[in-house]
Amino acid sequence: MEKTCIVAGCVIVNKGKILLLKHKKLGVWLYPGGHIEEGEMPTEAAIREAKEETGMGVSLIGRRVLPPLDEKDALEPVQPLLTICENVPYAAGSHKHFDIVYLARPSGVSGRPGKGESTELRWIGASEIQKIKTFQNVRHVLKFAFKSMKEIEQNAK
Q1: Which positions ≥6 away from 121 have C-beta within 8 Å?
Q2: In 3D, which of 10, 125, 7 has the Cα closest to residue 56?
Q3: pLDDT tens readout for residues 108-154
Q4: Could you tell me the maximum CA-CA distance found in the chain, to the nearest angstrom?
């Protein structure tokens, strides 16, 4: 049976650009993300991974489907931008990632990526998506993120 992991990540958008990092093992540009730790909610994992991998605090943005819940035992977290099941090609063998992807904006003070993380970070615009070295499914996620961000900004007006 192939290994399957549940991961969470976020596409950080600011001033019409998206922040990417160059993955140290895969050598391609990706949005920050990683494995959900035991007892952690996907939203918490996405925020933690963004901080670890970029040194940047983020706030997740997105729609909510239900009216505000006032029940003490129920809440509706920010809805993900999308979920995707990916085949990740590592040298030791590929495995599947069930990836929960959120939209995010930078918040708070920016620092440095954590120890052992990539130090190559880059803000890209929509016109650069086809020029970067990444996976095709990541290109689709980035295009969808730009489109979704425009819709969110238009609805906020």
Answers
A1: 19, 20, 21, 22, 54, 113
A2: 10
A3: 767 677 777 777 899 999 999 999 999 999 999 999 999 988 877 66
A4: 49
Facing residues of 103 across strands? 11, 61
Give the integer Cα–Cα distance in Å for 72 and 54: 34
* Domains defined for the chain, CATH in brackets: 4-156 (3.90.79.10)
Answer positive or negative: Cα dihedral of 26, 32, 37, 42. Answer: negative
Question: How does pLDDT run across 7-61, given as a tens digit for each residue?
Answer: 999 999 998 999 999 988 888 999 999 999 999 999 999 999 999 999 899 999 9
pTM given for the model: 0.86
